Known about the structure:
Layout lengths: L24 E3 L6 E3 L3 H12 L1 E3 L8 H14 L7 E5 L9 E6 L4 H27 L3 E4 L6 E4 L1 H12 L12 H12 L20 H10 L27 H6 L23 E2 L6 E2 L2 H12 L3 H7 L4 H16 L13 H10 L9 H4 L43 H7 L2 H4 L1
Parallel strand pairs: 3-5
Antiparallel strand pairs: 1-2, 4-5, 6-7, 8-9
Amino acid sequence: xxxxxxxxxxxxxxxxxxxxxxxxxxxxxxxxxxxxxxxxxxxxxxxxxxxxxxxxxxxxxxxxxxxxxxxxxxxxxxxxxxxxxxxxxxxxxxxxxxxxxxxxxxxxxxxxxxxxxxxxxxxxxxxxxxxxxxxxxxxxxxxxxxxxxxxxxxxxxxxxxxxxxxxxxxxxxxxxxxxxxxxxxxxxxxxxxxxxxxxxxxxxxxxxxxxxxxxxxxxxxxxxxxxxxxxxxxxxxxxxxxxxxxxxxxxxxxxxxxxxxxxxxxxxxxxxxxxxxxxxxxxxxxxxxxxxxxxxxxxxxxxxxxxxxxxxxxxxxxxxxxxxxxxxxxxxxxxxxxxxxxxxxxxxxxxxxxxxxxxxxxxxxxxxxxxxxxxxxxxxxxxxxxxxxxxxxxxxxxxxxxxxxxxxxxxxxxxxxxxxxx
Length: 422
């Protein structure tokens, strides 16, 4: 039997706002000097030496260029002493040898607000970028271990490396700027023209040739990245979620502190509707009623009627939906088992032959394996409920709970060892 080795995900509505692009250069707050963003340490050194300005906790500034441009404008409007604390050095030396340095930090409410706004703006841009990558089908990449080429969506390559080479950098949906991430990893594994890298991605030891490096990573089971390497932080969504916190800090937080805030005001909670996806096409709806109506009119599949006619309880509905999802995913008609190369061809066949309307024998789909979702984000499963008329008043009380594998409850009662004990 065919099985699904990695989690599947149904399509979701992509964000439509593009990420904001910025210049690669950052200007000095006080003069016309400019530096590349990658050389921000040179800019900070320049401002300390030439202009006596110190910016506290620069690493916590989400977007240094926007931060610098904001204060460049503000310092042009008002004196620097209106914003910065003054730190005097060499206080015991003669007055002419003393220096005044200016400290810009988030103790100033305006600076704190700016940093928080930049963090929120960056988070929005990162999420929009990640959303575009999720639905991008123009991806082209080569496996770092077997040189096999992959096109389409980035998840194809990432899942291949995880499944075939036990190299797992995380779920595709947790990664952003995937192409840059893969390029960084490939660069470490390759021998460059200017310098020799050939570096293990986990222990970061350097090797003399590529075969030795490959053998090392395989034998030592080092086919993973070094989680302590801060160079990789920018490629994971978790590092953008909270102001001034890394993934380690977020994961190490004690949830017990949340118990102290049970009385907080939840009025700002915004609940966004989650779309459920059709069993047979990509159509989405924000309510199950709309989705059931679509499946009935467009495909001839009346789920409420099937549920009622067959007396399906909650667990049987779950198994049926997962069974249908699985068969459609494999391109197979769940009635006649004919396979098709395309999903469109399969659905056309099922609609024309009316195979979409009738269920196969209950033993085909009413199996424990279909308790497990075919798609990990299948919202339709969250909306199921027992039919109100399936249980009579006599059945509503004293209902025994038994394993679904036990088909003959009466025989069980007669042969049970409990009878001897009684």
